[in-house]
Design brief:
3-stranded antiparallel β-sheet, two-stranded antiparallel sheet, 15 helices, 49% helix
């Protein structure tokens, strides 16, 4: 039996049994619990997706799957049911992403750090905007996804965490506090970020970005949020722009070496490294609007320095990273001069003393005597 290989007919038979027995008896018969993450939607009815997927195996492979043999998440039961042509919806909406909290926090700030009601036109407008943001997959949203009530609650979660608020805070998360502190520390910069996100969604610029293709964005620190970071990376990966930048450097008679550490791929790897270098977009995320990227906006850097720049916010410029590298090299060289490592001595076996043999002989003789 290949787990996950279920047919549409088998799923329909599991649904029919579910309808015949009723939810409680169906779940009890096969040992499943109520779905907490995803439900199967079929002809107006909602069904526990994990239980349906597990029982469908009975009709395709001779026995139902046990609950412990698989998960009900999007990579198992939900994915199998979608492959069989069924619609699967999330039971609960996903957690708020940083980009979403930034927009909500900006709204609270413009309202004097006070929460807003669900019938406020600004909340209704933000609700519609959040529903357009390409962060959460359609299957992970339910019918209440970022509706005005949910947006209004989020504004109070943020407002009641403000240092000046005297009452008891409402339910919120650590992310709400982080973004709030960012706005308090850098209000002008974070306002620019919120406006860029809003403009990018309104114009469609941020909606039409290429997908992340499963790469680890978690290792990239960007307080401005995921969408502006995706646009930043998209510009860095523009092959035509990268080629123009490389050609411009070569025409000036310069080497394709890292502007931060000086690493030269061709020098180290020979023919394999010829013509290779990465591009970094040096304009900060909160300033990089929808205008065309200029060659002067790009720096040529090696893969290691590129990763180190993106690793922790605020991102250093290549020249700042170069200064950091040079300062560290200077400190290390100074430490070596002050405390040089003594040369390692090779152990040489010592020649025996010329009288040692005679002494040993006499000692041995005395013992024998």
């Amino acid at each position: 039996m290949r787990i996950g290989a279920i047919t549409r007919d088998a799923v329909l038979r599991a649904i029919a049994e579910y309808d015949q027995l009723g939810r409680t008896d169906f779940l009890a018969k096969y040992g499943f619990k109520e779905s907490l993450s995803y439900v199967l939607v079929h002809e107006g009815g909602w069904y526990d997706s994990k239980a349906i997927a597990g029982v469908a195996h009975k009709w395709d492979h001779g026995r139902a799957l046990l609950p412990a043999e698989f998960s009900g998440g999007k990579d198992h039961a939900a994915a199998w049911l979608r492959r069989a042509g069924f619609k699967v919806k999330a039971v609960r909406n996903p957690d708020w992403a940083r980009d979403e909290v930034i927009l909500a926090c900006h709204l609270v700030m413009t309202n004097g750090w006070k929460g807003l009601d669900a019938n406020d036109q600004r909340v209704i407008e933000l609700s519609a905007l959040l529903q357009r943001m390409p962060i959460h997959a359609e299957a992970d949203r339910n019918e209440k996804f970022r509706n005005p009530n949910g947006v209004a609650r989020k504004t109070f979660d943020i407002a009641t965490r403000h240092p000046a608020y005297q009452g008891k805070p409402t339910n919120g998360g650590a992310l709400d506090v982080e973004v709030l502190n960012d706005f308090l520390a850098r209000p002008a910069e974070m306002t620019e970020v919120a406006q860029l996100i809003r403009e990018g969604i309104t114009t469609g610029d941020l909606e039409n970005l290429p997908p992340d293709e499963g790469e680890e964005l978690d290792d990239y620190s960007a307080p401005e949020g995921r969408l502006l970071l995706r646009r930043h990376r998209s510009r860095e990966r523009n092959k035509a722009l990268r080629k123009k930048k490389i050609d411009a450097v070569l025409r000036q008679g310069r080497r394709l070496s890292c502007e931060a550490c000086g690493f030269d791929f061709e020098e180290v790897y020979g023919e394999r490294g010829d013509g290779y270098i990465e591009c970094h977009h040096v304009v900060p995320l909160h300033q990089a609007g929808e205008g065309r990227t200029k060659l002067s906006d790009l720096a040529l850097i090696c893969s290691n320095c590129h990763r180190m720049i993106h690793r922790r916010a605020p991102w250093p410029t290549p020249s700042e990273l170069r200064a950091l590298i040079e300062a560290r090299r200077t400190r290390l060289n100074h430490a070596v001069r002050l405390h040089p490592t003594p040369p390692q001595r090779t152990h040489q076996p010592q020649a025996p003393h010329p009288r040692a043999g005679a002494l040993q002989e006499r000692t041995g003789d005395s013992v024998r005597r």
